[in-house]
Design a protein that fits this description.
single chain, 265 residues, alpha/beta, Rossmann fold, Alpha-Beta Plaits, 2 domains, three-stranded mixed beta sheet, 13% strand, globular
Length: 265
């Protein structure tokens, strides 16, 4: 049995399943396979919790349209959760505990017994307190249970024609703010706008703008750094200062997930 069949068959005998769908390739593949096996008994749920970028929200809608799966939205504001906004090393745990609570409430309303997410094997090797929170809420991970690595997820997503198969990994905008520096709506807006500016001016797909007490540190893959030549950097700096950053610099070490807090994003 190939990996795709194995994942599709994971949903055998599952009555009704809710997929927590973010806008990334992992949860997209889970949603696809759930729909292949269960049809209308599989639904996707995307949380608009105010720290997910608009890009991710739009991508989640595109994914559901491609698959044909029905999509529901959870609409709440993480910035009202003091445990989240104080931004200590357990921020991701508090985020996912709150998400789990909302998912469980919706599952009860819709008479869904099983909630699944897009965690894959590679995620387990990193510091991910959010995964522990989801486990505590009884949320299962078909990709882990069928031994899918990130590379296998991308290969399988490409095989079945999902347009996000090569989409760079992303994370909530709060991951751009170092632990101990409070998460605010103003910072998140500034970060999202800044990353859009850098992407538009450079055509680089994977961009992080870290907000270090009001100073912007731009991370792109190391081989992309030359694109940020002096002329482009000057344009970026002007625009980022206009929206509130005091200084702008390029991280010469290149992009590394979760660098500022040593947790993956």
């Amino acid at each position: 049995m190939n990996k795709l069949d194995e994942l599709v068959n994971w949903f055998e005998d599952k009555n009704k399943v809710m997929v927590a769908l973010s806008g990334g390739v992992d949860s997209a593949l889970v949603a696809y396979t759930a729909f292949q096996k269960l049809g209308q008994s599989a639904i996707a749920v995307t949380a608009d919790y105010k720290t997910l970028s608009e890009d991710e929200l739009q991508t989640s809608k595109q994914i559901c349209s491609e698959i044909g799966i029905q999509q529901f939205f959870l609409d709440y504001n993480e910035l009202e959760n003091e445990e989240f906004t104080k931004n200590d090393s357990n921020r991701c745990f508090h985020c996912r505990m709150e998400l789990g609570t909302h998912l469980i409430e919706l599952a009860k309303e819709l008479n869904v017994q099983i909630i699944v997410d897009g965690t894959n094997l590679d995620d387990l090797g990193e510091y991910r307190p959010g995964i522990e929170a989801l486990r505590q809420n009884g949320i299962r991970s078909p990709l882990v249970e069928t031994n899918f690595s990130k590379l296998q997820v991308r290969d399988t997503a490409k095989l079945v024609g999902l347009s996000v198969y090569h989409k760079p990994s992303n994370s909530c905008l709060a991951s751009r703010i170092p632990w101990g520096q409070r998460v605010t709506a103003e910072k998140l807006t500034r970060i999202e706008f800044s990353e859009t500016i850098v992407k538009q001016l450079t055509k680089i797909k994977q961009v992080r703008v870290r907000d270090l007490n009001g100073s912007a540190k731009i991370e792109v893959d190391k081989d992309m750094i030359p694109i940020l030549n002096n002329g482009v950097l000057k344009q970026i700096t002007e625009k980022l200062k206009m929206i509130g950053f005091t200084t702008v610099e390029i991280d010469q070490e290149g992009y590394k997930p979760g660098k500022i807090n040593m947790i993956a994003d």
